[in-house]
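Need residues for this backbone.
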């Protein structure tokens, strides 16, 4: 994983192949995070994403025939990226919580089994 200011391990070709999946919101959490890390550190790939995002949004607005169309697509993309980052953070938090729950349940089971063995005198 990389953070802003660091070079992403993903190459541009891979990032460009993921643009449509990003727009369709079908990337897995790990893919999404690596993709965002790359496009936020690579101006060329960000421009590619921006172009596809704008085309997608214009097409959606034409299909929906919305009266309240938003023309600031760059802001919409920035909002979408922030929303994706929040999604990643939420998923990581849920994974951590699930891991902690499993760890606590495993610990409780071990303590219970030790108590049960001691009470029944199985190894005495």
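Answer:
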């Amino acid at each position: 994983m990389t953070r802003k200011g660091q070079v992403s391990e993903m190459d541009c070709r891979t990032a460009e192949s993921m643009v449509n999946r990003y727009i369709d919101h079908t990337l897995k959490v790990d893919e999404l995070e690596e993709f965002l890390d790359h496009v936020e550190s690579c101006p060329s790939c960000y421009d590619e994403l921006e172009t596809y995002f704008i085309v997608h949004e214009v097409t959606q607005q034409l299909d929906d025939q919305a009266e309240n169309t938003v023309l600031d697509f760059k802001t919409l993309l920035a909002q979408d990226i922030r929303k994706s980052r929040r999604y990643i953070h939420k998923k990581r938090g849920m994974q951590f919580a699930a891991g902690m729950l499993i760890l606590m349940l495993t610990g409780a089971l071990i303590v219970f089994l030790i108590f049960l063995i001691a009470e029944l005198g199985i190894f005495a």
